[in-house]
Amino acid sequence: MITTNQNKKNNKNKIFKAVMSYESEDRDDTISGKSIGVCVVVMLLLTVLLFRFVFFQFINGDYYTKKAYAQQNSWRTISAKRGTITDRNGNVLAISVSSFLVNVNQKIIKDNPPEGLTSAQYQAKIAKGLADILNMDYEQILKKVQSEGRYKLIAENLELSKGEELKKWMKEEKIKGVYVDEDTTRHYPNGSLASHIIGFTGKDDQGLVCGVEVALNDMLTGTDGRIITAVDAAGNELPYDEVTRLEPTDAYNAVLTIDATIQSITEKALEEVVKEYNAIKGGAIVVMKPDTCEVLSMASYPDFDLNDPYAAPPGVDESTWIGNSNEGVLKLQETVWRNKALTDTYEPGSTFKSITAAMGIEEGRINKNSIVSDAPLDLSGWQIRCWRKYQDHGSETFADAVKNSCNPVFSKLALDIGIDKFYEYIEAFGFKSKTGIVLSGEANSIFHTNPTEIDMAVTSFGQRVQITPIQLATAYCSIANGGKLMKPRIVKEITDSNGIVVKSYESQVVRQVISESTSKELMNM
Predict the structure, then answer these.
(1) Are 458 and 486 contacting, i.e. CB atoms less than 8 angstroms apart?
(2) What's the CA gap between 419 and 292, in Å, rounded?
(3) Which residue in the list 297, 319, 350, 445 is annotated as catalytic?
(4) Between 425 and which of 164, 313, 359, 410 could a Cys-Cys bridge form, CB atoms 3.0 to 4.6 Å apart?
């Protein structure tokens, strides 16, 4: 009995040990699985953190560095001095003069009222002082001073005397949060002289609308400087930190080919002619130096004052005029801002006869002593007659026909040259493409797409086609300079602040249109 009970007991112990062993193995496997899971999760988290670190530190590091720098620093701009524009003789046409601009740091004013004043009282005091000295509206300044943020522009293009007066007031009253910094203002000493050639700048000191201010904007624009101040998390300037000043880099200067004296004479002559003949749409004159194709003057009327470009154009009621509105700008673009020497096309009329004469002489079809007749020409149902209809000039030398401006003579010459050859010369003289002058807004000519004989016949004396004044002036230069068509120039050179030439604009020959002998014969005709 004892043995049996002992065996039973032993069997129970074996079973218990077996069960405990199984549970132990199962528990070890569970623990091992959990450990692996935890390790996997930890590794994933570390991988994500590593990826984020790489993203912030390397991939997008520059962005966050700049963002942190912006939060830790505050800055104001020091405007760079825009380049000076002069004529070929050194006469100043456009210059940037020193001035001041005024900013306020609204947060500093709000957070630093002097003893005995609330923030609102301090804001009102500053607004009142600025309004009195600058002759500006108090309520508008107060609104800016009370606005949120850091740095609000109060005034710009301030005269030096006003800036000094403001600085004196700030020192006496121990004003904080108001800054008077150096600035530049674009000034045109001669008012409207060469207005379409020069152009003007906007508030951001960038060239607008027309002229070399636009065409050479990259060269005439310098790099602005900065005044950098460290700030705390609340945006207040740190008094113990030094102010960093990054000086601006001034721009290059432009020397034009025009002569201010010739330009002045040209503009006065144009204005007189326009008024004398009541030319409602105005007019244009281009004066060029034939051997280099340099523009000595280019006038377009009506013109405008470069120091007040948004003023009401002629014939507009000034009391209702708003120059900087969309409608106002459109009106200005259509009238006074329009450089008619480049943007407007017109029928050249008899001035085109020299071109046809050059073709005929070059092709050996005619010379100055050839006998011609200006008898009426019947062509395609049209009759072309001399302008002196009451009595034709009859037989005459070609030289006399040029002097008498006889239309039929040039029509007959064109027919003798032939359509293909005639229009080859039209293209060679540059009438089917823009001249490429550096100024913006140049238009192109209008010629017949598939010209007939009657089209060519009237084109020979400058009718039923449209060209620009600059195209005709350039073509005439080619007749006068030995037959070489050149690219017109209005910029002579670019210089640095020390007067050293950094870029020269040399004369460029586009092609040889006629021979030198033809050029001489035409010049002596």
Answers:
(1) no
(2) 31
(3) 350
(4) 359
